[in-house]
Specification:
The complex is a heterodimer of chains A (228) and B (550). Chain A is an alpha+beta fold and 228 residues long. Chain A has ten helices and five strands; from the N terminus they run ββαβββααααααααα. By secondary structure, chain B is an alpha+beta fold. Chain B contains 16 helices and 27 strands. In chain B, the strands form eight sheets. In chain B, strands 6, 7, 13, 14, 15, 16, 24 and 26 form an eight-stranded mixed beta sheet that branches. In chain B, strands 18, 19, 20, 21 and 22 form a five-stranded antiparallel beta sheet that branches. Chain B is globular and about 70 Å long. The chains are: A alpha+beta (228), B alpha+beta (550). The structure holds flavin-adenine dinucleotide.
């Protein structure tokens, strides 16, 4: 790798020469920008560095995350650190999940024209259009599963001709699924009751009173599950 | 140009071939875990945190004389970034009962529980440096621990926590952590968090240093899933959040109680005054200090501001002498160096192997031990693989996971990792990945009691900023738990405290006093703190930067 190899990127139209092999984010920093907005977790989990770009000689606009995308020669970039999409306000405890629940909270989803622009815009490669279709018929499980890796960057909403806030719709669907539809796990309730009744107090009291040598001994004696 | 084959330079492929050759034989053959004395030996010799040159005694403040990492000492010995005389404390911009500093998981949990405890929503304020949720919390991949299986118990969890922490933890905090866990999970379920299931039960994995399978995950987006639900809930509840507003100093009242904070608008650079009867510090960790020049897994705002503010207000620290390096940070490709490869990879059976495809360590040692073993392999034993930019690492064999758990297991359980590498043309279901330890977690912090109260009246702390829960070394999955358990306790305690508190006149005298102490201790002004953001601009650019006067 020639270490001095430089490429040209255009930050909001303005050219900067930066070394090859950086992400869009580190390339902009190299050029002299200090982020305040547009930079959060720096590893693809927070959706704070949504970026729109075009390549020289290409007419198409692409979308991705600045912290996860390699900078390329001739990239025209702009970041989109905030999307003013509408979020429905609700009391989850009062929701009764029905086929129409999602449409009631987000009526605009019925206006989806199935253009698939949202899917193309998604930096996580989620099937956004499909989960909106599923949302229209109240298929919570499908929405929850298809949207699970959503980082809520808002790029789908920005590109949508029907002004849908896909990521907010999905959030509601997942919460409904998690609260009302996902199977309850008995062992958790059982353990909660045991703790409340003080079943483990004696053992914990004993452990808390042990000195370091005794603790070390007990620690060494532990059987590690999954090993022989 | 180097010839590339499926994301790797051709020369690295030679070593990958050896990994492939040994794979089948390694499937159910693991090296033995180390004995306590072996652990001690390897840590002393190879772990960066055991290198005395990386630390020094802090020369001022409540922990004067205690050992902390050099980078932390620098910040504590730095001069305040404001002059108290420039601040007008008589104009109160926000007047609340509970002020939460930091909009990560601990902060959001605390705000929600202060509300449940009866504080009105317009008397709670969250102020945060970046956006709500831009935090270490949202990046947590692996999961959260909770001892709920028949084969498991809070006592076993306790012993794991204490042993992992080298027996230095505050026992009552460790106990609170493990006994509150089921309550936290139950609350999350009620809010609609989707934890992974397996046949009507939770899918539970093991983590480094844990004796039972008790790691609950939401694929490898556990932090994201919990954080976005909590954020959604706090919006629904109408709790006000001011984004891009960093706290830069705590405020005291003339009775010596903490009484809110001085806020700084990161965009307009104007300050504002938030007065509060109770203040909760939830500013997270310090990875962006790049301790010992290590790359880090942490988010952009992890710069130890909370430590600095609390220290100046008189709060003391515990266990600030140890730093956690995660054994497996990405070492290739260059663009993602330092980013976390979750321990869940090893929890699912992924194995660290050297350039010859040979195993050299039990995959699930406590983090420090695992990291030391990887460093030994790359240095003394010279069995690492060098990347084109000179990073040396060892292989983490990911394809073996699909032999153990069947085809599709990687995409099903580790989609974030799959996606991260796919962007660089590497298919982790087919090829191993190159890893090396990375700076990960602040083990110690502001000392709290079981009610999340610090040593200064009116100040509570929760999450990574506090210390004592994990002793000298935190185990995976216990930090998300910590944010929740102590976030909850901080919220409740802060609410109770607010209800019985009357504030006196606001002051920044403690900041003046701190400055005088620096002078008295003959500490020269070299830098200012809190840091707020790390500096990544090119030196050439910074060298020519002008600040025009007006
Ligand atoms: C990549 C990664 C993976 C992890 N995986 C796991 C895991 O699988 N399981 C587990 O248990 N733990 C894991 N951890 C650890 C865990 O995520 C964190 O320790 C925990 O979430 C910290 O929560 P917190 O609320 O204390 O801090 P954070 O979530 O970091 O939140 C702190 C917030 O305060 C803000 N802030 C900072 N300074 C100021 C200021 N001056 N004024 C106002 N706001 C400020 C920050 O910007 C941030 O929003 C992981 C950590 C990382 C980095």
């Amino acid at each position: 790798m020639a270490e001095t190899e430089k490429i040209t990127i255009y930050a909001m139209g303005k050219a900067y020469k930066v070394p090859a092999g950086l992400t869009i984010m580190s390339a902009l920093e190299y050029a002299g920008y200090q982020y305040i907005r547009g930079c959060g977790c720096r590893s693809g989990y927070c959706g704070g560095c949504a970026t729109i770009y075009r390549r020289e000689g290409d007419y198409k606009l692409y979308t991705d995350l600045a912290c996860q995308t390699p900078a390329e020669d001739g990239m025209y970039l702009v970041q989109l650190p905030f999307v003013p999409a509408n979020k429905s306000i609700y009391d989850l405890d009062k929701i009764e999940p029905m086929e129409t629940t999602l449409v009631e909270h987000y009526p605009e989803i019925v206006k989806c024209v199935s253009c698939n622009t949202c899917t193309k815009a998604c930096p996580q490669d989620l099937d956004v259009m499909y989960f909106i279709q599923a949302a229209k018929i109240g298929d919570f499980k499908e929405v929850a599963e298809l949207s699970f890796d959503c980082i809520q960057c808002g790029l789908c909403a920005v590109r949508c001709p029907a002004d849908i806030a896909h990521y907010h719709v999905a959030q509601l669907a997942r919460r409904i699924y998690g609260k009302f539809i996902n199977e309850k796990v008995e062992q958790l309730t059982k353990r909660l009751n045991e703790i409340e009744k003080g079943v483990y107090d004696k053992e914990l009291n004993k452990l808390m009173k042990m000195n370091k040598a005794m603790l070390e001994k007990a620690y060494k004696k532990r059987k590690i599950e999954g090993t022989k | 140009m180097i010839e590339m084959i499926d994301g790797y330079p051709k020369y690295m492929r030679e070593s990958i071939k050896k990994v492939e050759e040994t794979r089948q034989d390694r499937v159910d053959k693991l090296p033995k875990p180390m004995s306590m004395s072996e652990r001690k030996k390897i840590l002393n010799k190879f772990h960066p945190d055991f290198d005395p040159k990386g630390k020094r005694k802090v020369r001022t403040g409540p922990n004067k004389g205690d050992i902390v990492p050099n980078e932390v000492a620098d910040l504590l010995e730095a001069y305040p970034s404001i002059a108290p005389k420039d601040i007008d404390l008589s104009n109160i911009d926000y007047d609340v009962d509970v002020l939460v500093i930091g909009g990560g998981m601990a902060g959001t949990v605390a705000a929600l529980w202060a509300l449940k405890e009866g504080i009105k929503k317009d008397k709670i304020l969250i102020t945060t440096k970046l956006r709500h949720g831009d935090s270490n919390s949202i990046k947590a991949q692996g999961g959260i621990q909770c001892a709920d299986r028949e084969e498991d118990s809070p006592a076993m969890h306790y012993l794991d926590v204490i042993g992992g922490g080298h027996f230095a933890n505050k026992p009552e905090l460790a106990r609170a952590l493990v006994t509150d866990a089921p309550k936290i999970l139950d609350w999350h379920e009620d809010l609609g968090v989707m934890y992974d299931r397996d046949n009507g039960k939770y899918l539970e994995l093991s983590g480094g240093g844990t004796s039972r399978f008790r790691l609950h995950s939401a694929k490898d987006y556990t932090g994201l899933e919990i954080m976005r639900v909590l954020r959604d809930e706090s919006i629904n509840q109408g709790i006000e959040v001011i984004e891009f507003a960093s706290a830069i100093e705590l405020l005291l009242d003339d009775g010596g109680k903490v009484a809110g904070a001085l806020l700084y608008n990161m965009e307009t650079e104007e300050y504002s005054i938030a007065r509060a009867k109770s203040t909760i510090l939830a500013t997270g960790g310090f990875g962006r200090l790049h301790i010992q020049s290590y790359p880090t897994t942490n988010h952009y705002g992890a710069t130890a501001d909370g430590l600095v503010m609390a220290y100046r207000a008189g709060a003391n620290f515990v266990d600030m002498d140890t730093v956690q390096y995660h054994p497996t940070g990405a070492a290739y490709p260059e663009q993602i160096v330092g980013q976390l490869i979750t321990e869940k990879v090893r929890g699912l059976g992924g194995q660290p192997v050297n350039k010859d495809g040979k195993q050299f360590v039990f995959p699930l040692e406590p983090r420090d031990v695992e990291a030391a073993a990887i460093i030994r392999e790359c240095t003394e034993r010279n069995k690492g693989v060098k990347s084109p930019t000179g990073m040396v690492g060892i292989w983490l064999d990911t394809p073996i996971i699909e032999i153990i758990h069947g085809k599709g297991a990687v995409k099903e359980n580790l989609h974030a990792i799959y996606r991260m590498y796919e962007r660089f043309d590497i298919d982790v279901t087919k090829d191993p990945i190159l890893v090396f330890p990375t700076l990960h977690y602040q083990n110690g912090g502001v000392e709290i009691d079981v009610n999340a109260a610090t040593s200064v009246a009116g100040l509570f702390a929760a999450g990574e900023v506090e210390g004592g829960v994990h002793g000298k070394n935190r185990l995976m999955g216990n930090s998300l738990l910590d944010c929740n358990v102590f976030g909850l306790r901080a919220g409740i305690s802060a609410a109770k405290h607010a209800k019985k508190t009357k504030l006196g006149k606001l002051t920044l005298q403690h900041v003046e006093k701190y400055t005088k102490n620096l002078e008295k201790n003959k500490i020269k002004p070299k830098m200012r703190s809190p840091m707020l953001l790390p500096e990544y601009r090119e030196e050439d650019v910074l060298a020519r930067r002008l600040r025009l006067s007006t």
